[in-house]
């Protein structure tokens, strides 16, 4: 079940990844595990060690932001799904 | 080489042997908040540099340089709490928000203090980190309260001769120590005052701001508290207040001269404004172990309303001693003659969170 993943340039720079991936995963948590194997530190950059999506990270699955779901990492993924991993706007930082 | 952490990345100032001429490099770490930058000179021929970089997006990460800052790499791992049964994914589970302090012990271990308050150690140059379970999940933890900067473990002092003795400072919990390498921990706040609770001398709940030690007098610690400057001559078993003569007993940093163990430096601040009393920017120096203090301000601005954060005062090991002071307005002031006169090394950096010296 390949899905397509797009990541923000900030993350590309932080982890030295490519900006797009295809990967096989049944849910979001599994996708992060797959990408962690390709790029050490990937999962930790998206989630803290308690499994919560980091406060300034948004994850869109087919256009829907899942970060505020009860169990966002359990979001099911299917063939052809498109995932965007982006930093949220934080213009208030001094 | 002066390592300077700021809220917008890290910088390095390369000095010559006269300590007169400095050249600025940086910023590093993409402008992310950098709370500490240190050198581990365990192998003096090949010191590693480490930086505590707290990215607002991707979490706190440790960066490492093996070529004196010419290039930096994200460490293989950064301090993280281990999963605890029943806590995973729950709102209350601990997760590292910031790394505040990195402390090499000179024996191959690298300690890291984080927010929420916890201590970690790496024995493999930051490839992996282990928790100090008995401290990080101390039976009193649920009652710990944060200071204004957060509930953070910001100070780590390892006994220079007995590396199993560790003292840490947590705001606002106080000094906690271990004598067995971190298996057991106990509060060590005897005689340290609390001005913000009904009980003036509780077992814990102090807001210690910084502790320093001169390795040649390893049992003598100097401590800047939220209220009061203190000294211990038994590595923290008991403390004595030594702030008589200072214009304010509030401040953040404290540093001890590396060749003169009875000489220490503080930067008193007004508690509410976090700037020097009357805006007179002065470093105060004791040369007799805290019996009295004198102001040192020759060359420092006469009127300035910035402060100096807890990690932003450093000393070198030269004779006469150099003292380096980073301000919340982005200047570094320094003295090459142990406070006789001061010069500005650099201006217009972002708010400085840490300074640390790697001597040649």
Largest sheet of chain B: 4 strands, antiparallel
Write the element-wise H/E pattern of chain B from the N-terminal end onward. Answer: EEEEEEEEEEEHEEEEEEEEEEEEEEEEE
- Kindly provide the radius of gyration of chain B, computed on alpha-carbon positions and rounded to a whole number of angstroms: 19 Å
Strand order of the largest sheet of chain A: 2-1-5-3-4
Q: Into which percent range does the helicity of residues of chain A fall?
A: 10-25%
- Ranges of chain B where pLDDT stays below 50 over 5 or more residues in a row are none
Query: How would you sum up the global shape of chain A?
Result: globular
Number of strands of chain B: 28
**Order of strands across the main sheet of chain B:** 3-2-1-28
Q: How many beta-strand elements of chain A?
A: 5
- Fraction of residues in H or I helices of chain B: under 10%
Description:
- In chain A, 24% of the residues lie in helices and 26% in strands.
- Chain A has 3 helices and 5 strands.
- A 5-stranded mixed sheet of chain A has the order 2-1-5-3-4.
- Chain A is globular, with a radius of gyration of 12 Å.
- In chain B, 1% of the residues lie in helices and 39% in strands.
- The mean pLDDT of chain B is 95.
- Chain B is globular and about 55 Å long.
- In chain B, the strands form 7 sheets. Chain B has a 4-stranded antiparallel sheet, with no helix packed on it.
- The A-B interface holds A 10-11, 13-15, 40-41, 44-46, 48-52, 54, 56-57, 71, 87, 90, 93-94 and B 7, 30, 55-59, 61, 74, 76, 78, 80-83, 87-90, 93-96.
Give the topology.
The complex is a heterodimer of chains A (94) and B (360).
Chain A: E1 2-7, H1 9-15, E2 20-24, H2 28-38, H3 42-46, E3 57-61, E4 64-65, E5 82-87
Parallel strand pairs in A: 1-5
Antiparallel strand pairs in A: 1-2, 3-4, 3-5
Chain B: E1 2-6, E2 9-15, E3 22-28, E4 33-40, E5 48-55, E6 59-65, E7 73-74, E8 98-104, E9 110-115, E10 118-122, E11 130-131, H1 133-136, E12 152-158, E13 166-171, E14 174-178, E15 186-187, E16 208-213, E17 221-225, E18 229-232, E19 240-241, E20 251-256, E21 264-268, E22 283-286, E23 294-296, E24 313-315, E25 323-326, E26 332-335, E27 343-346, E28 352-357
């Amino acid at each position: 079940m390949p899905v397509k993943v797009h990541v923000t340039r900030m993350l590309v720079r932080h982890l030295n990844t490519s900006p797009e991936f295809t990967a096989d995963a049944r849910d979001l948590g599994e996708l992060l595990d797959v990408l962690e194997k390709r790029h050490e530190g990937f999962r930790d950059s998206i989630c803290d060690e308690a499994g919560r999506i980091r406060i300034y990270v948004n994850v869109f699955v087919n256009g829907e932001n899942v970060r505020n779901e009860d169990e966002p990492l359990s979001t099911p993924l299917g063939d052809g799904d498109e995932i965007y991993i982006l930093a949220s706007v934080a213009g208030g930082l001094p | 080489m002066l390592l300077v952490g700021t809220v917008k990345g890290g910088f390095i100032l390369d000095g010559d042997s006269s300590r007169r001429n400095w050249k600025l490099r940086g910023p590093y770490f993409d402008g992310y908040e950098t709370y500490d930058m240190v050198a581990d000179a365990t192998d003096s021929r090949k010191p590693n540099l480490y930086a505590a970089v707290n990215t607002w997006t991707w979490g706190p990460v440790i960066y490492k340089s093996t070529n004196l800052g010419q290039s930096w790499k994200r460490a293989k791992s950064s301090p993280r709490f281990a999963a605890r049964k029943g806590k995973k994914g729950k709102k209350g589970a601990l997760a590292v928000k910031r790394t505040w302090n990195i402390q090499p012990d000179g024996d191959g271990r690298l300690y890291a203090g984080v927010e929420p308050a916890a201590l970690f150690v790496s024995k493999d140059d930051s490839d992996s980190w282990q928790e100090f379970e008995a401290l990080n999940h101390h039976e009193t933890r649920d009652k710990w309260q944060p200071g204004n900067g957060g509930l953070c473990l910001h100070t780590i002092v390892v006994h220079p001769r007995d590396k199993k003795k560790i003292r840490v400072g947590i705001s606002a919990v106080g000094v906690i120590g271990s004598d067995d390498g971190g298996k057991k921990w106990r509060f060590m706040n005897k005689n340290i005052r609390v001005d913000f609770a009904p009980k003036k001398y509780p077992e814990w709940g102090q807001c210690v701001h910084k502790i320093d030690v001169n390795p040649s007098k390893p049992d003598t610690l100097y401590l800047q508290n939220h209220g009061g400057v203190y000294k211990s001559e038994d590595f923290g078993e008991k403390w004595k207040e030594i702030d008589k003569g200072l214009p304010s007993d509030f401040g953040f940093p404290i540093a001890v001269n590396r060749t003169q163990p009875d000489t220490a430096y503080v930067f008193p601040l007004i508690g509410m404004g976090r700037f020097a009393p009357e805006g007179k920017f002065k470093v105060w120096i004791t040369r007799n172990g805290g019996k009295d203090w004198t102001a040192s301000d020759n060359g420092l601005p006469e009127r300035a309303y910035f402060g100096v954060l807890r990690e932003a005062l450093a000393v070198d090991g030269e004779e006469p001693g150099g003292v380096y002071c980073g301000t919340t307005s982005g200047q570094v002031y320094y003295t090459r003659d142990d406070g006789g006169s001061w010069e500005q090394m650099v201006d217009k950096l972002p708010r400085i969170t840490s300074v640390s010296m790697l001597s040649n």
